[in-house]
Amino acid sequence: MLQIQKLNVKAAILDMDGVLWRLTTPLVDLPGLFNAFSKNNIQVMFATNNGTATVDQYVKKLAGFGISVESWQVLTSAMATGYSLKKTFPNGGPIYIMGEKALHDTLKDFGFYHDTQAPQAVAAGLTRELDYNMLKDTSLMIQKGLPFYFTNPDPTYPTPEGNIPGAGTVLAALEAASGVKAKLAGKPLPFLFELGMQRMNTTPEETLVVGDRLDTDILGGQKSGCKTAMVLTGISTREEAEQWQPQPDLVIPDIMGLFEEV
Ligand SMILES: [Mg+2]
């Protein structure tokens, strides 16, 4: 019997960075992996806290690795931010955005646009062009009392060079400068997992969350009531996984471990 058959799930929601690849380097045989999912009749979705690329860019990146997916299968923390904003501002409108093009483009799909004159809220995410004036202007905006949304808390981002500053590093700077805690949107909040299960029409018991980070992927999966598998190709280590309570359902060296005979 395969590991994944033991878990008795119909669907998997996969993190990407540190699970499928590091930047542009695949971590396993990706076409082989997706053949294995389809052979076992497991539906697949992708949920990433990395909001610096749009859904279409992820579809293209996956296609570049020989994996054909549709845009409804990809969920990002920028989308989670859009949904979260929409709850408070159902008509969309002007907001102050500090982030990359993908955040602007994604929020635009939800009816929000960048405005410095009369914004209703501040929305921010990882900005790799970050400079002092951006931090200054954004923190002054937040201090006006506008609601402050931030895409995701991951402090670091795994690359072939090592772990580099992630969105959470920028989040810490803005929170320190403004004295205000952000409303977070991505994992570990259950939002992306709930949206994924809704789109696949599965229950939490039937759904496996796969990730490389205990404090976002695994915590979020557990909070959503899903089964969880942690891979060791990204951020969290086996030692950290052993300390984690409750334990993930599975800790595997890499995502191919789901299809190992046990
Ligand atoms: Mg990851």
From TrEMBL:
GO cellular component: cytoplasm
Molecular function per GO: metal ion binding; phosphatase activity
Active site annotation, chain numbering: 15 (nucleophile), 17 (proton donor)
Manner of cofactor binding, per the entry note: Divalent metal ions. Mg(2+) is the most effective.
Keyword check for Magnesium: yes
Residues that hold substrate according to the record: 187
Binding site for Mg(2+): 15, 17, 212
Keyword match Metal-binding: yes
Cofactor: Mg(2+)
Keywords: Magnesium, Metal-binding
UniProt record similarity statement: Belongs to the HAD-like hydrolase superfamily.
Name the UniProt record assigns to this protein: 4-nitrophenyl phosphatase
Organism encoding this protein: Pelolinea submarina
Lineage: Bacteria, Bacillati, Chloroflexota, Anaerolineae, Anaerolineales
